[in-house]
Amino acid sequence: MEQGHALPSPEILPALDALGTDFLCEFLEVEVERHPENLAALGELGQLYTKTARYEKGLAIDRRLVALRPDDSTAHYNLACSLALLGQAEEALDELDRSVALGYEDLEHLLSDEDLESLRETARFRAIAQALGAAEGSPETPG
Description:
- By secondary structure, this protein is mainly α.
- Helix 4 packs antiparallel against helix 5 and helix 5 runs parallel beside helix 7.
- The protein folds into two domains: about 55 residues, no CATH class; about 55 residues, no CATH class.
- It has seven helices and no strands.
- It is about 65% helix and about 0% strand.
């Protein structure tokens, strides 16, 4: 007699996903405690904190990453995202500016990133996006 494969019911899938995310966060927290300069683990942990709306913890991780890699445009971009999510617009825009100055160049992502939603209508955000678009010669630059 053949046995059917039991799949989790759709109702419990979100709880299973959250359990897996929590486990991964705890695993990475132990890893970065043991190896504080493990950039891959720090980056992944920061992303998970943001995904799970633990913005203060994500901000702390992003600040550590910027301290460890002060010339990394992506680290500054991620810090800008964390700051924006916490309503710290001026500092977020400073970090976004710094990110572009250090070589960040993904205008499409910048314009669609939900983490930066709170900044989108500011003149300074539009100026950063416009400068980035001009640097890459993009017709998508906001006006």
